[in-house]
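Consider this record:
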Amino acid sequence: MSSDSLTLTERLTVHLMRPVDAASRDLARMHLLDWLGCVGAARRSPLASKLRGEPALERAAWLGNLMEMDDVHRGAILHPGPVVWPTALLSGVRDMGVLLDAAVRGYEAMIAIGATFDARHYAFFHISATAGGFGAAATAASLNDATPDDYVAAFGLAGSVAGGLWQMRREPNDAKQWHIVQAVETGLRAARLAAQGVTGPRAILDGPLGLHAATCDAPRPLMLGDRWRIEEVSFKPWGACRHAHPAIEAALELKRRGQLLGAIEVATYADAITFCDRQTPSSVIEAKFSLQHAVAIVTERGEPTLTDFEPDSFDALADARAHVTVREDAGFTARYPAHFGASVRSERGEVVLIDTLGDPERPMNRDAIVAKARALLAWGGVDGAGIDAALAAALDSNDPDEARAWIAAWA
């Protein structure tokens, strides 16, 4: 059968049947550690207290994106780790190699499909949710040693109920985390049912009544390359929305030069303004989605820590925020989402960034990722032995039960 006659999910399925190379598997371990760090840090959150009755792994699925330090793919504008890792661990598989291969395929499916959605889709839909069910389905299908037809059926089932509206950004609530949990549960169940012979629409993406027709004006082509796209995923060094990271790094460079003084202007791409133009944050999540607050932290305190986004900082940094203005720059918007860039200008100088620390072009090294995980776990109150156990479970163990046991003890 010609590839031109295949639906998009059929094409994706053929692509996913390739073997996973050792380098991609090793990189997946770093992303597993990154997710465990995010889960451990979120143990201190009010949401964690609300979920005490939930089983440990399900609770971890809720917590993986709460700290705004989860991994991110720029082109697809989504966060794959919080969906893929709980899906993989909830499967019960006992072989780490099998689990890592499934995770790489889950990242691939979620990113490949997420990157087909256009600006209209992103204006209304949380892509980590709409593409997340596909990523979870691919992860679970790989763990089930699924046939190609099983993959396609699982994608069809998961995609037929895809959702996740951005209204949750406009009011205090926990729906952003609920989106992730729903993607995990949907993908797991879709793959399980597909293995039992239950079928779903094969053209769920590109059919006349499919997801693209319903949610996009001009869907982008499905891009499938020779390498696994987990290599394209960025790590986040600071506990803020990724849209704020370019401004943070540019401000840090100005501060190192002794030039971050007086009135400060942040110029960046349109979506960063849409999501993060917030002069007066009144909650932790609003502070994490505030360009003004992020730059004010750097101005007054230096490199941001998680403490800097807590309520005590809101009034303390009000005067510094008042000196920060933000605007869209057409040049940065034209490069987005392939590049998340910004410039920060003060009375003394300017720094322009096209790519940000943690992006594949400017990667965090292994030591930096490990240090980030240690800091996150310490923030969550995990003791030294627990931190060492998390690192060992992610980076060295061949038994996923060690990660599950860590979550049961600490999440």
The mean pLDDT is 96.
